Every structure is written in structure tokens, then in C-alpha cells.
Amino acid sequence: MAPLGDSAGIVVEEADLEYEEEILRNPYTVKCWWRYIEHKRKRPRAERNLVFERALKELPGSYKLWYHYLRERRAQVHLKSPTDGAVEALNNTYERALVFMHKMPRVWLDYLALLVAQGWITRARHTFDRCLRALPITQHGRVWPAYLDFVRQHAAVPEMAVRVFRRYLKLEPTHCEEYVHFLLSVGRYDEAARQLADAVNREGFVSVEGKSRHKMWVELCELMSRHADEVTSLRVDAIIRGGIEHFSDMVGKLWCALADYYIRRGHFEKAHDIYDEAVQTVKTVRDFSQVFEAYAQFEESTINALMEKAAAMSLDGEGEGGGGGGGGGLDDPDTLLNMRIARYEHLMDRRPLLLSSVLLRQNPHNVMEWQKRVKLYADAGDVGRVIATYTEALKTVDPQAASGKLQDLWVEFAKFYEAAGQVAEARQILQRATKVPFRRVDDLAELWCEFAELELRQKCFSRALEVMQTATHIPPTSRRAAYHDDKAPVQARVYKSLKLWSFYVDLEESLGTFASTKAVYERIFELRIATPQMVVNFGTFLEEHNYFEEAFRAYE
To answer: 188-208 burial by CB neighbour count: b if 16+ within 10 A, else e?
Structure first.
């Protein structure tokens, strides 16, 4: 038999005559040619190839014949070098097949896999482009995965991959995360940040990887902060601050990312300002701890760097004869080092106050936290800050929303002035406090008692009695309210406070006359708030003064 491509003719054996006659009678029937090819299954490859070529000459539009022919030809060149003539002949056969099979994605994909395996980068890229132009858009989903795998394999030529990915995103814009991963792998951080920012800002964007918009925003902020020098096309500061406003659970992390961005760009003073702003604006202890720890580490690293620089300069000065030493200006390393150490110590000293500010931003009506803040300033001996803190606290705390005893804050403020010898100011503070709409009657009653005790400490006994008379004054009938009527102000209900009357009667027994004390007891009985203990006390009081009949009536 003549080999493939030889023009000497076709050698037909006796066993082939039956099939030859059949294809002569039906040259355009695939079944006839397929039976002939099956008959030649165990014949040499050249002979089979010749039969395939003859069949395809008659039936060039048969997908079945082309598919099996190309598969056999691929098997024949398996493990051969791409420079082998048989491999190039197979490539030419694929090109011939695509003249008729250009709408068949399987043929394209097999040819593309063959070219990629041979290592022909430009030729494969051109063939991918031809494939996308030839196939309908509905078939492109089968081609793009292979095309993207191809450009990833040749990431050493990133510009080719970038252009291919941009074309792919026009077809599948939701797959931008795949593009971002590739950009990060080749070090194109600016383009990756732009793609992430576009995805985050796009309305209705749904991540194919199942990521939330919140997580993608955090990834964007981390990318911008870690690669500050490479990301130049975005307004990093504005983007991260926008994230701080929108995502309350990531505030601390985003503040640290913003400061880290300026640190990597070498703007250390700006980073210091960012940290300082962060510790004064965060609203949770967790965020504060995160930011403060990063702030302290930043200051420590700056101090270490300056110490190393100063040590190196001192060694250089000794080597040059000891003539070194700066002029003591701001550029002098020793001066800068001392300033940084002082700043670090000041930061550590401010930590309790900064933490107190965080807790008060979280709940400005927390009385106990205001008291702790006052104590911090008092321990530091800052009288002006103590007064300012008391004033701010009393303006800020809502009596109806206060957590803790608001009356204690007023009393402590008055005692602060009393300790300083300014009793008149202390009286004014307590006088103002009696008009505060406290939540409970007992709070106001306790305040009046403290007011009276202030006068007792100053030995002003008559003033103490006057204070209690004012506190227990029974309002006119039109202004009276039931003790448990929460809708009425406490000032209209305090006249029935048992705590207030108990203190008043004890004060009268100690400082007043028999008549005034008896009058107070009688008013308690009139208001019908007397307890059994009060009755016993009244009876005992009368017996001590030999008013036995009245004592008997009191018991009755």
C-alpha cells in the first residue's frame, strides 16, 4: 500500500473490495465510510489516515468523521516534540477542519489545548480570539475558563492577562473577584483596588464567592493600607473614613488600617494624628483597646528607631574625633528622642481618661463613670478639670435615663466646694439640685437630707431646720399628687417621703423644742405615713416629757 501523501495511487486489497464498491455506490453516506474505517481498525495508521482523508474529501461537513480523525491524529503524535513535523501537520489538519467545523466548540477546545500544550503562546492567544469570534455568545462560557487558565499559566506576561480579563469582565462583570486574585498574584495592587472599589460601590453586586459587601470593604481597606505606595488612583483616606462611618463593628480595625497607610507612606506625624483622633472618637472598649495598642506600638517603634539612629551617630562622632553633636534644635536626634519619649509617657498617662471618655461616649448617662472620671482628675490635682467635669456631667446626664444615683453627683459636687471652704457655692449647688426632675422620690428626699447635713456640718442648726421645713412643706391641694403617681414630678410628691420625715423628726428631737417636735409628729400622723416604729418613738417621746395621756392617745 502506498503511504499517506504518496501520489503513486491507492492499493486496495481483496478484503477491501466490498467496502470500496459500497462507497463508490454511496460516496456521500457517512455509514458507508464509517464501516470502511471500522474495517481498517487494525491496519497501519497511514492507511487509516488515507481512508479518513478520502471520506472527508467527499463529506467535509461531517462532525463525526472530523472528530474521530483528529482524535486519532492526536494519539499518533502523543509524546512527540512540538518541533516535530507530524505535530505541525496535525495543527494544519485542525486548521482545515475549522474551515467547516468553526461552529463546533469541541473542535476549538481540543485544538486550543493542543496549542497550549505545545507552548505556542502568541499562536494560542490568536486562536482563542478567533474561537470567540467564530462561536455564538451562548458558547463562550465553555471557552473562557480555558482562556483564563491559559493566561494564568503565563503570568510572566501580565499585560496579556490583564487585557484578557478586562474583556472577560465585559461578559461576566460579577466575576471581578477572580480578576482581583490574579492582580494580587502579579503585584498589580492599584488595579486590584480599583476593581474592588468598583464592586463595592456597584448597586446590586453579588459576590460569586459568597462574600458580603462588608467583607469586601474590609479587604479593600486592608489592601490600600498594606500597599500604600502602589495604590495611587483612589482617595484612600476618604474611602476608609467612609467605611468607619458605615461599619460600626470594624471601626477599630479600619482606624488602624488608615494609620498604617500613612505609616507605610512615611507620613509619621499624620499617622500620629490619625491614632490620636481614633482614640478620642471610638465608642467601644474593644475598638479602643485595638487602636490604643497599635498606637503604643507605633510610638515604641518610633522611639526604638530614633535610639538606633542616635547610637549610630554617636559612634560616627567618636570615629571622627568626637566632634559630633547637634545644636540641640528640633532636628537633633537627641531632642527628637526626648520629645518622643515624653509623648509616649503622656499617652500612657492619658489612658485611663481616654478609656473613661470611651465609656461615656457609649453611655453619657452613666453616673458611676462620671464619678470615676472626677476621681481621676482629683488624683492628678487638677481642680479646674474636676469642676469642669462635674459641670459637664450635670448638664449631660438625663435624670430619667441615668444609670446610678444622680443625686450623689450633685452631693459630691457640693462637698467638693465645701471642702474648699466655699460653703455658699455648695448651698447654691444643692439648691439647684432640688429642682432637678429625679426619677424617684427617694432620690430627691436623699438630696434634701444631704442638704440638711451640710448645714449641720457647718454648725448652722437653724438653717438645717429651715431646710427640712422647706423640704417637707405640704403643697396646696391643687398641686398635690399621690406618692406613687409616676406622671407627677417628684417635687409634688416628696412631702410624703417617709425617709424625709424620719430625718426631720430626728433633727427636731435633737435641736428643736418639745412643741416643734410634737408638731412634726402630728403632721406625720395627718399624712397617714407613720410606721409602727414612729408610733412607738412618739409615745416614748411624750412619756419622757410626762405627757402620759397624750402618749396613750398616740398609741390608740
So the answer is: bbbbbbbbbbebbeeeeeeee
